Amino acid sequence: MSALPQAKARPHHVVCDGNEAAAWGVVLSRPDMVAVYPITPQTSLVEALAQFAADGMLDADMVEAEGEHSVLSVLQGACLAGARTYTATSGPGLAFMFEPYLRAPGLRLPMVMSLVTRDTLSPQCVWGGHQDAMSVREVGWLQLYCESVQEILDTVIMAFKIAEHRDVMLPINVCHDGNYLSFGVCRVDLPEQAGVDAFLGKPDTNWHVALDPDRPMGVDPLTGGGGPGGALFTRYRKGHCRGMQNALRVIDEVHAEFGARFGRRHAGLIEEYRLEGAEYAIVTIGSMTGAAKDAVDEARARGERAGLIKVKTYRPFPVQAMAQAITKVGAVGVVDRSVSFGWNAGPLYQDVLGTLATVPARIPAVSFIGGLAGADLTPAHFSRALETTAQARAGALPLAPVWLNENDR
């Protein structure tokens, strides 16, 4: 029997893309089992994990399943047996694993999955967008969106602590944009392993199930129907909703603890950027935020009172935090990288509209859709969005979504 390869010395920083950064976050989090299947634009993440395992830096059971449905099914069994688990997918891979994906939150399994976001298949597309993640936004997983490569690594680590918290116990997607973050390269600082170990603690994934061959039990029995069955199902659904709402507090607490321990601070729920004294603001999500901040800076330099609200936590939606931010301005423009076909608008725009229904102020909101199928969103696009939002504050509210890339050349 051959010995395991000698683990390489771990550097303090690396230059890598977002997919490798996610893999570094996995290595530092010490999962017990990793199951993955490659799919564009997630594939290099899988390759990085395999390389880390081959180099002796990732000490986890690596399962090379025949497809994404099996990937998540394998991990559900491992999680029920007490393992800390991880996987990653994109687009069609997410669609293929939908049945076990739908089951995981109902079983209250604290799994972590990187979702390298991608637009949908037809018209034929393998490039970035948020359509895959937004299509499963109501399944019951938590969703955190990252702005930068560094934020990907840090959020993967935090995700295990959030998911395994006893007031949450739910699976979590760490979403990062295909193309722009998956393949975008920059310097990334790596936290010390001892610090991550102290931050996360030991896995605590199956205390609510006690899956033990010496104490056999049924998992996920048939429930529902009339009488007691319906009441039991309602109890599960209510508890699931309570766990989602608990997550809002836990996400903030974990982000604060991470910042205090490692010196890098990321917004837990939303980030307010130059909102002090702003008359209007745009709402962003994911990697588009950097270019949007540049546009806000340019507007401020011209004397315009623009601001920005970045969404980090999308599910559960941080209604109170968003309401507090949005009532500081007189109009908002919401920029989506996906489409809600039922509302002829963006999904994030719908959530902002729902938030506005909870506040007394009458604040106009504009839906902007851009960056589909990997299209670039530049400061010029966001300058246009800011200008349109300023006009909405003055009473010229568009009655349909504004498609930012429609006339690009």
Structural description of this entry:
- By secondary structure, the chain is α/β, with parallel strands linked by helices.
- 40% of the residues lie in helices and 17% in strands.
- The protein has 13 helices and 15 strands.
- The protein has helices at 18-29, 43-54, 68-80, 91-96, 98-106, 131-135, 149-164, 193-200, 228-262, 289-301, 319-326, 347-356, 379-393, and strands at residues 13-17, 33-35, 61-63, 85-89, 112-117, 142-145, 172-177, 185-189, 270-273, 280-285, 306-311, 313-315, 332-336, 365-369, 402-403.
- The chain has a 7-stranded mixed beta sheet, with helices on both faces. The chain has a 6-stranded mixed beta sheet with strand order 9-11-10-13-14-15, with helices on both faces. A two-stranded antiparallel sheet has the order 1-8.
- Strand 14, helix 13 (379-393) and strand 15 form a beta-alpha-beta unit.
Task: Please give a quick description of this structure.
The protein starts with 12 loop residues before the first strand and ends in a 6-residue tail after the last strand.
Total domain count: 2
**Mean pLDDT score:** 94
Main sheet record? 7 strands, mixed
- In the CATH classification, which architecture of the largest domain applies? 3-Layer(aba) Sandwich
Distance between the termini: 60 Å
Give the number of DSSP strands: 15
Identify low-pLDDT runs: 1-5
Q: Which strand order spans the largest sheet, edge to edge or round the barrel?
A: 3-2-4-5-7-6-12
| Secondary-structure-derived class | alpha/beta
Number of helical segments with 4 or more residues? 13
Q: Which band does the percent of strand residues land in?
A: 15-25%
N to C succession of SSEs: EHEHEHEHHEHEHEEHHEEHEEHEHEHE
